[in-house]
Amino acid sequence: MKSISTYENKKVLVVGLAKSGVAASLLLHRLGAFVTVNDWKPLSENKEAQALLDEGIKVICGSHPVELLDEGFEFIVKNPGIPYTNPLISGAVEMGLPVLTEVELAFQISEADIIGITGTNGKTTTTTLVHHMLNAGGKRAFMAGNIGTVACEVAQEASEEDTMVIELSSFQLMGIKEFKPSIAIITNLYDAHLDYHSSKNEYAMAKSAITKNQTKNDFLIVNADQPELLELVQDTKAQVLPFSTSRKLEGGLYVANGSIYYNQEEIIRIQDIVLPGAHNLENILAAIGAAKLSNIENEAIVAVLTTFTGVRHRTQFVREWQGRKFYNDSKATNSLATKSALAAFTKPTILLCGGLDRGNDFDELLPYLNNVKAMIVFGQTAQKMKELGEKAGISIIKKVESVKESVPSAVEISEEGDIVLLSPACASWDQHPTFEVRGDIFIEEVNRL
User: Fold this and answer.
1) Strand partners, 350
2) All domains of the chain, ordered by start, with CATH?
3) Ranges for the Mur ligase C-terminal domain (predicted)?
4) pLDDT class for 198, splitting at 50, 70, 90?
């Protein structure tokens, strides 16, 4: 960890707790700042805030009072989930106060090299693949960021010989000032999080911020199958390494003749890759690019790709039981993700879907239901999903109360050779606090068989 004096004897307000807020508060306290923490949850119900009080950190809970801005803070560190429309945050911006997220703190103290990964889909899979490839190739790599481990915690442990592989959301990237990965990846760009961002352009600009501080000595790995993405990053100073699943590239990564190539060098036959789904080829290409730029040998890259079966809750292979293969794709909280999951399979599929009703329909899934022989639907959107299945001409559609009940129902309907796929196309919040909890219930029931 670098020793910095940026925050020494400075008044810093941390807005919002959860894991990132707690880690940022403790780090700033360690760096000599006068830290005040503000969280909406009342102190009596807020174990995290109580623990910070025990560390001697000032805590204000129960609301986000704008009057806090009168206390002369010099920096604001914001939990990524708190929108910039929050009056406390918008007020700080109007006053010209720096509003940061904890990944900026991580960069400021990190001795380790940083690989940063963003995009609408595939971030977690790509981050995990890069992490595995680096470790398989003899480097010590740490995963951090939006994937679950707070970056500024990891940065305190990683040495200059290590690499931090950080998954970055648009929310986190909006709060960077100097953050600069030596290798940046943008997997793809689609409409998303428009309830947080004011427009698709704001969302796109947040994603492109991953490369804004890069120099000619850095690298940007980018999806060349999206012209709008190439245009978005056309002003980058980094060396661009493009990847494509649809065409050969002279200097980049591509798929041709059933293999993956890096700068005309064959890396691996696609048939040897264990991770299912055409959509995962993008993630694999991007990860190979980061590994090759990190001087990882092909042998280590191939070893990962021939054993890695997927990230938990993301088209994750759970088990085979009596000739049926069960996959957990609970992370599919929208139609786009479910389309990708359905496109990964050609065998007869039992689709388990449904969840929080956000008011949208699901007709965009219709072209992807050709291999779906039956649907098990649940949650607030159960009726909408039933109607979708009827439109698609699916003859077997069964309503159940929950994911837990969907497993025995799928077993009853399925036959040897079938795929049983949990890919809800909806958020979990109607019945479960997170998609992880929903996926864990599915895994538990499958393992009971």
Assistant:
1) 374, 420
2) 11-100 (3.40.50.720), 104-305 (3.40.1190.10), 316-448 (3.90.190.20)
3) 313-426
4) low
Residue 124 annotated as lining a ligand binding site: yes
Is residue 5 pLDDT above 80, yes or no?
A: yes
Nearest to 24 by CA among 150, 164, 157: 150
The single-letter code of the amino acid at 257 is N
Q: Is 62 annotated as a binding residue?
A: no
What sections of 294-354 are H helices per DSSP?
A: 298-305, 335-343
Identify how many contiguous H helices and E strands the chain contains and give both numbers.
15, 20
Burial 387-421 (b: 16+ CB within 10 A, else e): bbbeebebeebbbbeebeebbebbbebbeeebbbb
Question: Annotated binding residue at 125?
Answer: yes
- For the whole prediction, is pTM greater than 0.85? no
Q: Structure tokens of 372?
A: 């779906």
With contact defined as beta carbons under 8 Å apart, do 374 and 352 qualify?
no
85 annotated as belonging to a binding site for a ligand: no
- DSSP 8-state class, residue 327: E
Tell me if 215 is assigned to a ligand binding site: no
Q: Give, for 166, the enclosing helix (H) or strand (E).
A: strand 163-167
Which pLDDT tens digit goes with each residue over 293-343?
999 999 999 999 999 988 888 888 899 999 999 999 999 999 988 998 998
Residue 190: what pLDDT? 79
